[in-house]
Amino acid sequence: MKRLIILGAGTAGTMMANHLHNHLKREDWEIDIIDEREEHHYQPGYLFLPFDIYKPEDITKPIRDFIPHGVNLINDQIDKIVPKEQYVSMVNGDRLHYDLLIIATGAKIAPEETEGMLGEEWQKSVFDFYSFEGSLALRNKLRDWKGGKLVVHITEMPIKCPVAPIEFAFLADSFFKNKHMRDKVEITYVTPLSGAFTKPKATTALQHLLDEKHIHIESDFAIESIDNENKTIIDYGGRVIPFDLLVTVPTNKGDELIARSGMGDDLNFIPTNKATLQSKNYQNIFVLGDATDIAASKAGSVAHFEAEILTDNILRYIAGEPLKEEFDGHANCFVETGNGKALLIDFNYTHEPVEGSFPLPGIGPLRLLKESRMNHMGKLAFRWIYWNMLLKGTHIPFVSTAMQEAGKDFA
Question: How far apart are the first and last CA of the chain?
Answer without folding.
Answer: 53
